[in-house]
Design brief:
Enolase-like, domain 1, binds flavin-adenine dinucleotide, single chain, 5-stranded antiparallel sheet, 5-stranded mixed sheet, alpha+beta, binds FE2/S2 (inorganic) cluster, about 475 residues
Length: about 475
């Protein structure tokens, strides 16, 4: 079937392109649209940023075209820097602002910045300084310096532009084939499970911010790829008074408003996952699915006692998330199963939740250590504790000795400090290029003091003792 989308307003029907070709290569090689640049080919630099309007929405979002595949374009509108100029040769507002504010020198990064800011201008959010920096965190510039780019953002984006009028849904295909490559895009959970049964070795592709590296850097082509973001059951978010259930194929950006309302600290951590370009397509389902020991959401979800909904040929199965991770990159997922959703209980009376990500940079960095804490404190006594860490073992894991050490104790800074020392009994982390084992243990211990001071509303900046 053809892949049906629009490119800079012109209809495109592709039947003769490999569905896992990256959109970056497709634009440059098949259309000669070389305004979209390749810097890193792994989602880090933003030079390849384009704007996408997914089927069924009218929201323009910035994405990294180096990690996006052509198959993922089915039904969407794609806008590149070449598509921005308005009529009569006039520059679009962001482009004009970059010129006026001297926001470019060599120009290599400039199309990517322009596309990130074009998306920001159309989000409809009140654009504050914090939001400008958040919108630009996925774009690197080597020579201009950021001040003039931020000035351009201030002048062009603080008056948000209206999104274009909502568009009609475009017809899309449930499979695409090119050469010896198949790209299956089922619409229902039943069809997804049938595809999984028929092709147990085929990778599941959700946002592709992890798997997309196999296509871009790895230059791999799988005989069959199964795309999950058209499966309606996986795209649901269900918010009740007591739980939030996030479908495995809902993006971080879609889930964020609900997470912010229930656990602001978890939302702060999610806003540090990659960049907007990553969060606009990346999913919590993919973060759990890749089973990385340094994935950001699993420690938080384990501390919050989240349940994983799995579906396979024998029907649905729910398991506590902490039981899902068996060993390094080994999970309890059977060959015929998929993750359909993660269900997170909301906090009850007396419960508090905090999560801390420790990495070398604030934005766009993988964690060295993550600590997530859900404590129940009544009359200043800790009556329950669920604490999980990432980066401390082969899987995200609970700190059971620390938890036991806290229960029944008065919640004081001394308790936090003493119990934090038990981290060395809970974990034996490894040295790697992100952090040494000794650093990880020290950070883990110190996070308990940070937690105490944070909950007490105190400044935690002098905690680190080396
Ligand atoms: C530049 C950059 C920065 C990043 N920064 C961070 C970061 O700060 N923190 C962090 O934790 N991660 C980070 N990541 C990793 C990645 O973005 C996240 O893990 C993301 O959540 C993956 O989601 P996705 O939908 O893109 O997954 P995909 O790439 O589509 O899939 C990832 C894995 O999950 C499996 N999978 C997907 N859906 C399902 C399902 N329904 N059932 C079973 N398995 C499934 C896939 O088969 C694959 O193995 C970063 C990646 C990049 C490129
Ligand atoms: S080329 Fe660097 S993010 Fe895509
Ligand atoms: S203008 Fe040269 S890299 Fe940004």
């Amino acid at each position: 079937m053809t892949i049906n989308f629009s490119l800079n307003g012109e209809p495109c029907q592709e039947a003769s392109v490999a569905p896992t070709k990256t959109v970056l290569e497709y634009l440059r090689e098949d259309h000669g649209l070389t305004g979209t640049k390749e810097g890193c080919a792994e989602g880090d630099c933003g030079a390849c940023s384009v704007v996408l309007v997914r089927n069924g929405t009218d929201q323009r979002v910035a994405v990294n075209s180096c990690l996006l595949t052509v198959g993922q374009l089915d039904g969407a509108d794609l806008i590149t820097v070449e598509g921005l100029s308005e009529r009569n040769g006039e520059l679009e507002a962001v482009q004009q602002a970059v010129v006026t504010e001297d926001g470019t020198q060599c120009g290599f990064c400039t199309p990517g910045f322009v596309m990130a800011l074009h998306a920001l201008r159309h989000t409809g959010e009140t654009v504050t300084e914090e939001i400008i920096h958040d919108a630009l965190a996925g774009n690197l510039c080597r020579c201009t310096g950021y001040r003039s780019i931020v000035d351009a953002a201030r002048s062009a984006c603080t008056e948000p532009a209206e999104n274009s009028t909502p568009r009609a849904d475009r017809e899309t295909g449930e499979w695409h084939e090119f050469g010896d490559e198949k790209f299956l895009a089922p619409r229902t959970l039943d069809d997804l499970l049938a595809a999984r049964l028929a092709h147990p070795d085929a990778p599941l592709l959700s946002g592709g911010t992890d798997l997309g590296l196999s296509f871009s850097k790895g230059r791999k082509h799988f005989p069959v790829t199964i795309f999950t973001q058209d499966v309606s059951e996986l795209r649901r978010i269900e918010n009740t008074a007591t739980t939030l259930t996030i479908g495995a194929a809902a993006t971080y950006t879609e889930a964020l408003p609900f997470v912010t309302a229930a656990w602001p600290s978890f939302a702060t951590l999610i806003r540090r996952i990659g960049s907007r370009q990553i969060r606009n397509v990346g999913t919590i389902g993919g973060n759990i699915g890749n089973a990385s020991p340094i994935g950001d959401t699993p420690p938080c979800l384990i501390a919050l006692d989240a349940k994983l909904h799995l579906h396979g040929q024998n029907g649905p199965r729910d398991i506590p998330l902490e039981d899902y991770f068996l060993d390094y990159r080994k999970t309890d997922l059977a060959a015929d199963e998929v993750i359909s959703a993660v269900e997170i209980p909301k906090l009850s009376d007396g419960q508090v939740f905090r999560a801390y990500k420790v990495s070398k940079r604030y934005d766009q960095d993988i964690s060295a250590v993550i600590g997530a804490f859900r404590l129940t404190i009544k009359d200043n006594i800790v009556t329950d504790a669920r604490i999980a860490f990432g980066g401390m073992a082969a899987t995200p894991k609970r700190a059971v000795k620390c938890e036991a050490g806290l229960i029944g104790k008065a919640w004081t800074e001394d308790t936090a400090r003493d119990v934090g020392e038990l981290i060395a009994e809970d974990f034996a982390p490894i040295d790697d290029h992100r952090a040494s084992a000794a650093y990880r243990v020290r950070v883990g211990t110190n996070l308990f003091v940070r937690l105490f001071r944070d909950l007490a509303g105190q400044d935690a900046t002098d905690v680190v003792t080396l």
